[in-house]
Amino acid sequence: MPERICTRPQSEFKKHDQRLQDQTQKYLGDFYLKLARKNAREIKVSPQDIQEACHETVSIIKRDNKVNRILHGNEFQPVLEREAELSGNVKMGLLGCVDDRRFPHITTPIVSKWQGPAGAAEVKKRPSDDLLIPRSPILQQGIFEVVQNPNGFIEFIEIHSQSSSRENGCAAATIIRGQIESGKSPLLSQTGMARELITGLDYENLADFNLYLSEVITAQAFNNYYNSCLEILNRKAVPRVAVPVHYYTDTMGSVIRKLGNPNQISSTDLAMRFKDFILQRPKSGYFGEWRYQFNSTDHILEFAGRKVEYTAAIIEQYQGEIEEQLHELYPELLQGQIKATVFYIANNAAFQYMTGFALNTNHEYSNHRPEYMSVSTAEAVGQRDPRPKVISSASNPEAALENLSIKLLVMDRHHKNPSAPKILFVCHSIDRRDFETRNKGYMRSMQMVSELYNKIIENEEYCDLVKKGKLAIVPALVCDTDREILEIPNLARIL
Ligand SMILES: [Zn+2]
User: How much is the pTM?
Assistant: First the structure.
Protein backbone atom coordinates (compact mmCIF):
# COMPACT_ATOMS: atom_id res chain seq x y z
CA MET A 1 0.00 0.00 0.00
CA PRO A 2 1.48 3.42 -0.91
CA GLU A 3 2.35 5.70 1.97
CA ARG A 4 -0.06 8.45 2.93
CA ILE A 5 0.43 12.14 3.27
CA CYS A 6 -0.55 12.21 6.92
CA THR A 7 -3.66 14.16 7.73
CA ARG A 8 -2.40 17.70 7.55
CA PRO A 9 -4.69 20.70 7.83
CA GLN A 10 -5.63 22.57 4.66
CA SER A 11 -3.90 25.67 6.03
CA GLU A 12 -0.61 23.81 5.98
CA PHE A 13 -1.08 22.81 2.33
CA LYS A 14 -1.84 26.42 1.54
CA LYS A 15 1.30 27.62 3.29
CA HIS A 16 3.40 25.00 1.54
CA ASP A 17 2.06 25.98 -1.91
CA GLN A 18 2.62 29.66 -1.13
CA ARG A 19 6.23 28.81 -0.28
CA LEU A 20 6.59 27.02 -3.62
CA GLN A 21 5.11 30.03 -5.39
CA ASP A 22 7.64 32.35 -3.71
CA GLN A 23 10.47 29.95 -4.58
CA THR A 24 9.34 29.83 -8.22
CA GLN A 25 9.22 33.63 -8.46
CA LYS A 26 12.61 34.01 -6.83
CA TYR A 27 14.20 31.32 -8.95
CA LEU A 28 12.85 32.58 -12.28
CA GLY A 29 13.70 36.17 -11.37
CA ASP A 30 17.29 35.27 -10.48
CA PHE A 31 17.63 32.99 -13.47
CA TYR A 32 16.71 35.57 -16.09
CA LEU A 33 18.73 38.27 -14.34
CA LYS A 34 21.87 36.11 -14.49
CA LEU A 35 21.15 35.07 -18.04
CA ALA A 36 20.74 38.71 -19.10
CA ARG A 37 24.04 39.66 -17.44
CA LYS A 38 25.88 36.97 -19.31
CA ASN A 39 24.25 37.24 -22.72
CA ALA A 40 22.64 40.66 -22.89
CA ARG A 41 22.47 40.78 -26.69
CA GLU A 42 21.04 37.36 -27.29
CA ILE A 43 18.22 37.48 -24.77
CA LYS A 44 14.78 37.81 -26.24
CA VAL A 45 12.72 37.25 -23.14
CA SER A 46 10.27 39.95 -22.15
CA PRO A 47 9.16 40.56 -18.55
CA GLN A 48 5.74 39.40 -19.71
CA ASP A 49 7.24 36.06 -20.84
CA ILE A 50 8.75 35.58 -17.39
CA GLN A 51 5.51 36.49 -15.71
CA GLU A 52 3.58 34.07 -17.90
CA ALA A 53 6.07 31.27 -17.25
CA CYS A 54 5.83 31.89 -13.51
CA HIS A 55 2.04 31.95 -13.55
CA GLU A 56 1.85 28.74 -15.59
CA THR A 57 4.43 26.97 -13.39
CA VAL A 58 2.63 27.87 -10.17
CA SER A 59 -0.74 26.71 -11.49
CA ILE A 60 0.75 23.32 -12.52
CA ILE A 61 2.41 22.93 -9.11
CA LYS A 62 -0.81 23.70 -7.23
CA ARG A 63 -2.89 21.32 -9.36
CA ASP A 64 -0.36 18.51 -9.16
CA ASN A 65 -0.04 18.86 -5.39
CA LYS A 66 -3.81 18.93 -4.99
CA VAL A 67 -4.20 15.66 -6.93
CA ASN A 68 -1.40 13.90 -5.05
CA ARG A 69 -2.74 14.99 -1.66
CA ILE A 70 -6.16 13.57 -2.50
CA LEU A 71 -4.77 10.30 -3.87
CA HIS A 72 -2.59 9.80 -0.79
CA GLY A 73 -4.99 11.21 1.77
CA ASN A 74 -7.03 9.27 4.31
CA GLU A 75 -10.33 9.67 2.47
CA PHE A 76 -8.90 7.88 -0.55
CA GLN A 77 -7.82 4.83 1.45
CA PRO A 78 -11.06 2.84 0.98
CA VAL A 79 -10.64 3.10 -2.82
CA LEU A 80 -7.06 1.87 -2.64
CA GLU A 81 -8.01 -0.95 -0.32
CA ARG A 82 -10.81 -2.06 -2.62
CA GLU A 83 -8.47 -1.93 -5.62
CA ALA A 84 -5.85 -3.97 -3.77
CA GLU A 85 -8.48 -6.56 -2.88
CA LEU A 86 -9.75 -6.81 -6.48
CA SER A 87 -6.23 -7.16 -7.88
CA GLY A 88 -5.29 -9.83 -5.34
CA ASN A 89 -2.70 -7.61 -3.63
CA VAL A 90 -0.34 -8.26 -6.51
CA LYS A 91 2.11 -5.39 -7.04
CA MET A 92 1.52 -3.72 -10.40
CA GLY A 93 3.82 -1.55 -12.47
CA LEU A 94 2.99 0.48 -15.55
CA LEU A 95 5.60 1.48 -18.09
CA GLY A 96 4.20 4.08 -20.48
CA CYS A 97 5.40 6.37 -23.22
CA VAL A 98 6.90 9.84 -22.67
CA ASP A 99 3.98 11.43 -24.48
CA ASP A 100 1.78 10.24 -21.65
CA ARG A 101 -1.34 9.41 -23.63
CA ARG A 102 -2.85 7.36 -20.83
CA PHE A 103 -5.22 9.32 -18.69
CA PRO A 104 -3.71 9.21 -15.18
CA HIS A 105 -6.93 8.65 -13.18
CA ILE A 106 -7.14 5.23 -14.66
CA THR A 107 -4.29 4.26 -12.42
CA THR A 108 -4.42 5.32 -8.81
CA PRO A 109 -1.28 5.02 -6.63
CA ILE A 110 -1.90 1.26 -6.53
CA VAL A 111 0.14 1.14 -9.74
CA SER A 112 3.76 2.38 -9.87
CA LYS A 113 4.42 4.35 -13.01
CA TRP A 114 7.56 4.78 -15.06
CA GLN A 115 7.84 6.47 -18.43
CA GLY A 116 10.29 6.11 -21.28
CA PRO A 117 10.17 6.77 -25.04
CA ALA A 118 7.68 4.38 -26.68
CA GLY A 119 7.22 2.64 -23.33
CA ALA A 120 10.73 1.24 -23.58
CA ALA A 121 13.04 1.02 -20.59
CA GLU A 122 16.70 1.66 -21.23
CA VAL A 123 18.52 -1.61 -20.85
CA LYS A 124 22.07 -2.88 -20.61
CA LYS A 125 23.77 -6.23 -20.80
CA ARG A 126 24.92 -7.44 -17.42
CA PRO A 127 28.65 -8.25 -17.72
CA SER A 128 28.46 -11.36 -15.51
CA ASP A 129 26.00 -13.28 -17.71
CA ASP A 130 25.26 -11.06 -20.74
CA LEU A 131 21.57 -10.91 -19.83
CA LEU A 132 19.56 -7.75 -20.53
CA ILE A 133 18.55 -5.82 -17.41
CA PRO A 134 17.03 -2.33 -16.83
CA ARG A 135 19.71 0.33 -16.78
CA SER A 136 18.14 2.70 -14.26
CA PRO A 137 19.33 2.14 -10.65
CA ILE A 138 15.97 3.52 -9.44
CA LEU A 139 14.05 1.01 -11.56
CA GLN A 140 16.33 -1.79 -10.34
CA GLN A 141 15.70 -0.73 -6.75
CA GLY A 142 11.94 -0.66 -7.42
CA ILE A 143 12.03 -4.21 -8.82
CA PHE A 144 14.05 -5.43 -5.85
CA GLU A 145 11.41 -3.99 -3.52
CA VAL A 146 8.44 -5.61 -5.30
CA VAL A 147 10.16 -8.99 -5.23
CA GLN A 148 9.58 -8.96 -1.47
CA ASN A 149 5.80 -8.91 -2.00
CA PRO A 150 4.50 -12.43 -1.26
CA ASN A 151 1.56 -12.01 -3.67
CA GLY A 152 3.76 -11.46 -6.70
CA PHE A 153 4.26 -8.77 -9.32
CA ILE A 154 3.28 -7.89 -12.86
CA GLU A 155 4.49 -5.05 -15.09
CA PHE A 156 2.29 -3.78 -17.93
CA ILE A 157 4.33 -2.30 -20.77
CA GLU A 158 2.08 0.03 -22.71
CA ILE A 159 2.63 0.96 -26.32
CA HIS A 160 0.11 3.19 -28.07
CA SER A 161 -1.53 4.06 -31.38
CA GLN A 162 -4.86 5.26 -32.72
CA SER A 163 -7.48 2.52 -32.94
CA SER A 164 -8.07 3.28 -36.62
CA SER A 165 -4.45 2.81 -37.70
CA ARG A 166 -1.55 0.96 -36.18
CA GLU A 167 0.82 3.14 -38.20
CA ASN A 168 -0.56 6.28 -36.61
CA GLY A 169 0.39 7.20 -33.10
CA CYS A 170 3.61 7.18 -31.18
CA ALA A 171 6.14 9.86 -32.18
CA ALA A 172 8.80 8.25 -29.97
CA ALA A 173 8.30 4.84 -31.62
CA THR A 174 8.70 6.48 -35.05
CA ILE A 175 12.01 8.00 -33.94
CA ILE A 176 13.28 4.77 -32.37
CA ARG A 177 12.30 2.72 -35.42
CA GLY A 178 14.26 5.15 -37.62
CA GLN A 179 17.28 4.94 -35.31
CA ILE A 180 17.26 1.15 -35.26
CA GLU A 181 16.78 0.89 -39.02
CA SER A 182 19.80 3.14 -39.56
CA GLY A 183 21.82 1.11 -37.04
CA LYS A 184 22.04 3.94 -34.49
CA SER A 185 19.98 3.71 -31.36
CA PRO A 186 20.91 5.56 -28.17
CA LEU A 187 18.33 3.41 -26.38
CA LEU A 188 20.22 0.26 -27.24
CA SER A 189 23.73 1.63 -27.66
CA GLN A 190 24.88 0.17 -24.36
CA THR A 191 23.73 -3.30 -25.32
CA GLY A 192 25.16 -3.67 -28.81
CA MET A 193 21.71 -4.92 -29.72
CA ALA A 194 20.67 -2.58 -32.51
CA ARG A 195 22.18 -4.82 -35.20
CA GLU A 196 20.75 -8.01 -33.72
CA LEU A 197 17.34 -6.36 -33.74
CA ILE A 198 17.52 -5.35 -37.39
CA THR A 199 18.21 -8.90 -38.45
CA GLY A 200 15.50 -10.31 -36.22
CA LEU A 201 12.94 -7.60 -36.89
CA ASP A 202 9.48 -8.92 -37.56
CA TYR A 203 6.62 -6.41 -37.75
CA GLU A 204 4.09 -5.00 -40.19
CA ASN A 205 3.38 -1.54 -38.79
CA LEU A 206 4.58 0.94 -36.17
CA ALA A 207 2.45 -0.43 -33.32
CA ASP A 208 3.59 -3.98 -34.02
CA PHE A 209 7.21 -2.79 -34.15
CA ASN A 210 6.65 -1.18 -30.75
CA LEU A 211 5.01 -4.32 -29.36
CA TYR A 212 7.94 -6.37 -30.64
CA LEU A 213 10.37 -3.96 -28.98
CA SER A 214 8.45 -4.25 -25.68
CA GLU A 215 8.56 -8.02 -25.78
CA VAL A 216 12.16 -8.63 -26.85
CA ILE A 217 13.80 -5.77 -24.95
CA THR A 218 11.83 -4.34 -22.06
CA ALA A 219 9.89 -7.43 -20.95
CA GLN A 220 13.04 -9.54 -21.12
CA ALA A 221 14.98 -7.04 -19.02
CA PHE A 222 12.24 -7.01 -16.38
CA ASN A 223 11.99 -10.81 -16.33
CA ASN A 224 15.75 -11.19 -16.00
CA TYR A 225 16.18 -8.67 -13.25
CA TYR A 226 13.17 -9.88 -11.27
CA ASN A 227 14.40 -13.45 -11.42
CA SER A 228 17.93 -12.58 -10.36
CA CYS A 229 16.42 -10.83 -7.31
CA LEU A 230 14.41 -13.98 -6.57
CA GLU A 231 17.61 -16.00 -6.82
CA ILE A 232 19.30 -13.79 -4.21
CA LEU A 233 16.38 -14.57 -1.90
CA ASN A 234 16.67 -18.30 -2.68
CA ARG A 235 13.27 -18.36 -4.34
CA LYS A 236 12.13 -20.10 -7.49
CA ALA A 237 12.23 -18.19 -10.79
CA VAL A 238 8.94 -17.14 -12.43
CA PRO A 239 8.33 -17.56 -16.17
CA ARG A 240 7.16 -13.98 -16.83
CA VAL A 241 6.67 -10.70 -14.97
CA ALA A 242 6.07 -8.22 -17.83
CA VAL A 243 3.23 -8.19 -20.36
CA PRO A 244 3.07 -5.81 -23.35
CA VAL A 245 -0.25 -4.01 -23.77
CA HIS A 246 -1.53 -2.05 -26.76
CA TYR A 247 -3.21 1.20 -25.67
CA TYR A 248 -5.50 3.17 -28.01
CA THR A 249 -5.43 6.92 -27.45
CA ASP A 250 -8.86 7.62 -28.94
CA THR A 251 -10.95 4.96 -27.19
CA MET A 252 -8.55 5.12 -24.20
CA GLY A 253 -8.83 1.38 -24.12
CA SER A 254 -6.25 -1.40 -23.80
CA VAL A 255 -5.82 -4.58 -25.74
CA ILE A 256 -3.78 -7.49 -24.49
CA ARG A 257 -2.39 -9.25 -27.49
CA LYS A 258 0.66 -11.11 -28.68
CA LEU A 259 2.41 -10.80 -32.02
CA GLY A 260 1.56 -13.76 -34.24
CA ASN A 261 -1.59 -14.61 -32.26
CA PRO A 262 -4.92 -13.37 -33.72
CA ASN A 263 -6.72 -13.47 -30.36
CA GLN A 264 -6.90 -10.47 -28.09
CA ILE A 265 -8.61 -9.18 -24.96
CA SER A 266 -10.06 -5.73 -25.48
CA SER A 267 -11.28 -3.41 -22.72
CA THR A 268 -13.31 -1.49 -25.33
CA ASP A 269 -15.30 -4.63 -26.21
CA LEU A 270 -15.84 -5.25 -22.51
CA ALA A 271 -17.06 -1.68 -21.93
CA MET A 272 -19.56 -1.97 -24.80
CA ARG A 273 -20.86 -5.32 -23.62
CA PHE A 274 -21.12 -4.02 -20.08
CA LYS A 275 -23.16 -1.09 -21.42
CA ASP A 276 -25.74 -3.48 -22.88
CA PHE A 277 -25.65 -5.66 -19.80
CA ILE A 278 -26.12 -2.87 -17.28
CA LEU A 279 -29.04 -1.36 -19.24
CA GLN A 280 -31.05 -4.31 -18.09
CA ARG A 281 -30.36 -3.48 -14.44
CA PRO A 282 -32.09 -0.81 -12.39
CA LYS A 283 -30.32 2.06 -10.60
CA SER A 284 -27.15 2.14 -12.65
CA GLY A 285 -25.17 5.19 -13.75
CA TYR A 286 -25.38 5.69 -17.49
CA PHE A 287 -22.78 5.23 -20.24
CA GLY A 288 -20.74 8.44 -20.71
CA GLU A 289 -22.10 10.02 -17.53
CA TRP A 290 -18.64 11.30 -16.61
CA ARG A 291 -17.64 12.52 -20.06
CA TYR A 292 -17.10 16.13 -18.99
CA GLN A 293 -16.20 15.65 -15.34
CA PHE A 294 -13.80 12.76 -15.24
CA ASN A 295 -10.71 14.99 -15.18
CA SER A 296 -11.96 17.57 -12.74
CA THR A 297 -9.69 17.80 -9.70
CA ASP A 298 -12.82 18.50 -7.62
CA HIS A 299 -14.29 15.07 -8.36
CA ILE A 300 -11.29 12.75 -8.07
CA LEU A 301 -12.54 10.96 -4.98
CA GLU A 302 -16.08 10.46 -6.25
CA PHE A 303 -14.92 9.38 -9.70
CA ALA A 304 -12.41 6.86 -8.35
CA GLY A 305 -14.95 5.51 -5.84
CA ARG A 306 -17.51 4.92 -8.57
CA LYS A 307 -14.90 3.49 -10.93
CA VAL A 308 -13.73 0.85 -8.50
CA GLU A 309 -17.32 -0.33 -8.08
CA TYR A 310 -17.84 -0.54 -11.85
CA THR A 311 -14.57 -2.44 -12.02
CA ALA A 312 -15.87 -4.92 -9.45
CA ALA A 313 -19.11 -5.35 -11.43
CA ILE A 314 -17.20 -5.97 -14.67
CA ILE A 315 -14.92 -8.50 -12.97
CA GLU A 316 -17.94 -10.29 -11.52
CA GLN A 317 -19.58 -10.52 -14.93
CA TYR A 318 -16.62 -11.38 -17.18
CA GLN A 319 -13.84 -12.80 -14.99
CA GLY A 320 -14.16 -16.38 -16.24
CA GLU A 321 -13.88 -15.60 -19.90
CA ILE A 322 -11.05 -13.05 -19.49
CA GLU A 323 -9.07 -15.61 -17.50
CA GLU A 324 -9.62 -18.22 -20.16
CA GLN A 325 -8.40 -15.88 -22.92
CA LEU A 326 -5.38 -14.92 -20.82
CA HIS A 327 -4.48 -18.57 -20.32
CA GLU A 328 -4.56 -19.00 -24.06
CA LEU A 329 -2.39 -15.92 -24.79
CA TYR A 330 0.06 -16.16 -21.89
CA PRO A 331 -0.16 -19.65 -20.39
CA GLU A 332 2.97 -18.97 -18.32
CA LEU A 333 1.33 -16.30 -16.14
CA LEU A 334 0.82 -17.24 -12.49
CA GLN A 335 -2.65 -17.21 -10.94
CA GLY A 336 -2.01 -13.96 -9.03
CA GLN A 337 -0.73 -12.24 -12.16
CA ILE A 338 -3.86 -13.32 -14.00
CA LYS A 339 -6.04 -11.83 -11.29
CA ALA A 340 -4.13 -8.55 -11.49
CA THR A 341 -4.43 -8.51 -15.29
CA VAL A 342 -8.19 -9.09 -15.08
CA PHE A 343 -8.35 -6.11 -12.70
CA TYR A 344 -6.24 -3.99 -15.07
CA ILE A 345 -8.46 -4.66 -18.08
CA ALA A 346 -11.74 -4.37 -16.13
CA ASN A 347 -10.57 -1.10 -14.55
CA ASN A 348 -9.86 0.25 -18.01
CA ALA A 349 -13.28 -0.90 -19.28
CA ALA A 350 -14.95 0.81 -16.29
CA PHE A 351 -13.19 4.08 -17.21
CA GLN A 352 -14.34 3.78 -20.83
CA TYR A 353 -17.90 3.03 -19.73
CA MET A 354 -18.06 6.00 -17.36
CA THR A 355 -16.56 8.47 -19.85
CA GLY A 356 -18.22 6.92 -22.90
CA PHE A 357 -14.87 7.00 -24.71
CA ALA A 358 -15.33 3.37 -25.75
CA LEU A 359 -17.73 4.78 -28.35
CA ASN A 360 -17.25 8.56 -28.53
CA THR A 361 -13.63 8.86 -29.46
CA ASN A 362 -13.57 12.55 -30.26
CA HIS A 363 -12.40 14.13 -27.02
CA GLU A 364 -9.70 16.46 -25.76
CA TYR A 365 -7.27 13.65 -25.07
CA SER A 366 -7.53 11.96 -28.47
CA ASN A 367 -5.89 15.07 -29.93
CA HIS A 368 -2.80 15.25 -27.80
CA ARG A 369 -2.20 18.80 -26.52
CA PRO A 370 0.66 18.61 -24.06
CA GLU A 371 0.79 21.64 -21.79
CA TYR A 372 4.24 21.19 -20.27
CA MET A 373 7.23 18.85 -20.02
CA SER A 374 8.78 17.03 -17.11
CA VAL A 375 12.06 15.16 -17.09
CA SER A 376 13.80 13.24 -14.32
CA THR A 377 16.31 10.58 -13.46
CA ALA A 378 13.85 9.40 -10.78
CA GLU A 379 10.23 10.43 -10.11
CA ALA A 380 8.89 13.46 -11.93
CA VAL A 381 6.43 16.33 -11.48
CA GLY A 382 3.01 15.63 -13.02
CA GLN A 383 2.89 11.83 -12.90
CA ARG A 384 -0.77 11.92 -11.83
CA ASP A 385 -1.77 15.35 -13.07
CA PRO A 386 -4.94 14.98 -15.19
CA ARG A 387 -3.81 17.56 -17.76
CA PRO A 388 -1.89 16.40 -20.87
CA LYS A 389 1.90 16.74 -20.74
CA VAL A 390 5.04 14.90 -21.81
CA ILE A 391 6.96 13.25 -19.03
CA SER A 392 9.78 10.76 -18.59
CA SER A 393 12.22 9.16 -16.21
CA ALA A 394 15.63 8.18 -17.51
CA SER A 395 18.51 6.19 -16.09
CA ASN A 396 21.00 9.06 -16.30
CA PRO A 397 21.27 12.71 -17.48
CA GLU A 398 22.49 11.74 -20.98
CA ALA A 399 19.47 9.53 -21.55
CA ALA A 400 17.21 12.23 -20.08
CA LEU A 401 18.55 14.61 -22.70
CA GLU A 402 17.68 12.12 -25.43
CA ASN A 403 14.15 11.88 -24.05
CA LEU A 404 13.91 15.63 -24.01
CA SER A 405 14.58 15.93 -27.73
CA ILE A 406 11.63 13.58 -28.38
CA LYS A 407 9.42 15.61 -26.06
CA LEU A 408 10.26 18.88 -27.74
CA LEU A 409 9.17 17.42 -31.07
CA VAL A 410 5.80 16.48 -29.60
CA MET A 411 5.46 19.88 -27.89
CA ASP A 412 6.31 21.76 -31.08
CA ARG A 413 3.51 20.05 -32.88
CA HIS A 414 0.87 20.57 -30.28
CA HIS A 415 1.66 23.33 -27.81
CA LYS A 416 -1.47 25.23 -26.83
CA ASN A 417 0.08 28.70 -26.74
CA PRO A 418 3.00 28.87 -29.20
CA SER A 419 4.18 32.34 -28.17
CA ALA A 420 4.56 31.59 -24.43
CA PRO A 421 7.66 29.78 -23.09
CA LYS A 422 7.09 26.05 -22.71
CA ILE A 423 7.61 24.89 -19.15
CA LEU A 424 10.12 22.14 -18.51
CA PHE A 425 10.35 20.70 -15.01
CA VAL A 426 13.74 19.20 -14.26
CA CYS A 427 13.20 16.89 -11.33
CA HIS A 428 14.56 14.45 -8.86
CA SER A 429 12.77 12.65 -6.06
CA ILE A 430 13.55 12.76 -2.39
CA ASP A 431 12.60 10.92 0.78
CA ARG A 432 10.32 13.17 2.88
CA ARG A 433 12.40 12.69 6.03
CA ASP A 434 15.60 13.54 4.16
CA PHE A 435 13.89 16.67 2.93
CA GLU A 436 12.72 17.69 6.39
CA THR A 437 16.03 17.08 8.12
CA ARG A 438 18.20 18.45 5.30
CA ASN A 439 20.58 15.54 5.76
CA LYS A 440 22.95 13.72 3.40
CA GLY A 441 20.01 12.28 1.43
CA TYR A 442 18.82 15.83 0.78
CA MET A 443 22.26 16.85 -0.43
CA ARG A 444 22.33 13.86 -2.72
CA SER A 445 18.93 14.60 -4.28
CA MET A 446 19.99 18.21 -4.70
CA GLN A 447 23.17 17.06 -6.40
CA MET A 448 21.20 14.79 -8.75
CA VAL A 449 18.76 17.50 -9.77
CA SER A 450 21.62 19.99 -10.23
CA GLU A 451 23.50 17.56 -12.43
CA LEU A 452 20.52 17.08 -14.75
CA TYR A 453 19.76 20.80 -14.69
CA ASN A 454 23.34 21.70 -15.65
CA LYS A 455 23.35 19.15 -18.43
CA ILE A 456 20.28 20.77 -19.98
CA ILE A 457 21.42 24.36 -19.49
CA GLU A 458 24.86 23.55 -20.93
CA ASN A 459 23.27 22.08 -24.03
CA GLU A 460 23.48 24.73 -26.73
CA GLU A 461 20.19 23.84 -28.39
CA TYR A 462 18.15 24.03 -25.19
CA CYS A 463 19.98 27.08 -23.88
CA ASP A 464 19.20 28.79 -27.15
CA LEU A 465 15.49 28.05 -26.72
CA VAL A 466 15.67 29.55 -23.23
CA LYS A 467 17.32 32.71 -24.53
CA LYS A 468 14.66 33.06 -27.20
CA GLY A 469 11.90 32.80 -24.59
CA LYS A 470 10.63 29.52 -25.98
CA LEU A 471 11.55 27.37 -23.02
CA ALA A 472 11.52 28.01 -19.27
CA ILE A 473 13.42 25.50 -17.13
CA VAL A 474 12.20 24.94 -13.58
CA PRO A 475 14.00 22.57 -11.17
CA ALA A 476 11.88 20.63 -8.68
CA LEU A 477 12.23 18.12 -5.84
CA VAL A 478 9.36 15.61 -5.61
CA CYS A 479 8.50 13.34 -2.68
CA ASP A 480 9.45 9.77 -3.66
CA THR A 481 6.32 8.19 -2.18
CA ASP A 482 3.38 10.57 -2.51
CA ARG A 483 4.82 12.78 -5.31
CA GLU A 484 4.06 16.06 -3.55
CA ILE A 485 6.33 18.79 -4.93
CA LEU A 486 8.48 19.74 -1.97
CA GLU A 487 10.84 22.42 -3.24
CA ILE A 488 11.69 24.58 -6.23
CA PRO A 489 15.42 24.87 -5.50
CA ASN A 490 17.03 28.08 -6.62
CA LEU A 491 19.54 26.55 -9.00
CA ALA A 492 19.97 29.94 -10.70
CA ARG A 493 22.79 30.47 -8.23
CA ILE A 494 24.94 27.79 -9.89
CA LEU A 495 24.73 29.38 -13.34
ZN1 LIG B 1 4.45 7.51 -27.62
Answer: 0.92
